[in-house]
Amino acid sequence: MAEDNEGNQGIYYSDVIKRTLYSLIVVARPKSSKDYAWSIIKRLLAELKTDYDFLKYIHIDEIENLEDTMDDITVMSSLNDIEPKKIGQAIQNIIDIFKTRMGNKAGYFFLTEFKETLGNEYHSIIKEMGVDLRLIELQSKIYGWDSGKHKIKDKFDSNIAYIEKKDDV
């Protein structure tokens, strides 16, 4: 890392979290409403402040005043003084919970679309910070039905996983 408060590409962590939050909004907008996506982010940040005190450095404009741009998110530079792995844990939880709260609206390719919207440079940085999009994807496959109506289950008498086809009701 170039400096304690920058990722390896010289991008500040405050910019990384801002870009991450906005990328979630951009991917969610066509699947829901603009206001719904923004309200999920606002609620998530408020709820997760108990676990990640540094989220207090993030402010999102009031829903009725949003211009629906990245400028609606303000991240104070104080966030850059936080340990990158802690920020990464918060980002991982935000992405995971956001996807869960979007429910079926998120769609099967939500994380793929998110990664494309985020961009390779920012994806590399969050990966270095400990964010594992593949883990989120695997967890959603394990805990729920995928778009092919398959559920992955553990076979209890061995450590082999198998796929069960969901019957159409």
Topology:
Blueprint: H1 13-28, H2 34-48, E1 58-60, E2 73-75, H3 84-102, H4 110-118, H5 120-128, H6 133-143, E3 150-154, E4 161-165
Antiparallel strand pairs: 1-2, 3-4
Descriptive overview:
It is a single chain. With 169 residues, the chain is mainly alpha-helical. It has one domain. 47% of the residues lie in helices and 9% in strands. The protein contains 6 helices and 4 strands, in the order ααββααααββ. It has helices at 13-28, 34-48, 84-102, 110-118, 120-128, 133-143; strands at residues 58-60, 73-75, 150-154, 161-165. It has a two-stranded antiparallel ribbon. A two-stranded antiparallel sheet has the order 3-4. A hairpin with a 6-residue loop joins strand 3 (150-154) and strand 4. The N and C termini lie far apart (53 Å). Residues 145-166 have low confidence and may be disordered.
